[in-house]
Here is the input.
Amino acid sequence: MRLALLTRNAKHYSHLRLIQAAKDRGHEIVPIDYLRCHVSITSLQPSLRFRGTTLEGFDAVIPRIAASDLPRLIGDGHVTGGMIPKLLAGAEALAQGVWHVRIGADTMVTA
Here is the structure.
């Protein structure tokens, strides 16, 4: 599989472990800075764009969003609508001591 890992810091320990685990299983994994990309999941044809160019050929996207980036993502309009309260509730849970939050099946917010 070809995987996109949305992260601000691919050198973070948990991200390095995720990258290594994917490679150990024969997958290709590409770290992408989520502040420089746009993910559209509102249509029947989801898309991933990085700096204005549509990225194709990924079998899955793994978003790893830092709670500290939420105000910027919301303020810049990267996160809108019903995702705002979900992410803010996740950030609050992290602030109260939860180690990680999973939203839906795929989105994880980490401290």
In short: Helices lie at 13-24, 70-75, 83-95. The radius of gyration is 14 Å.
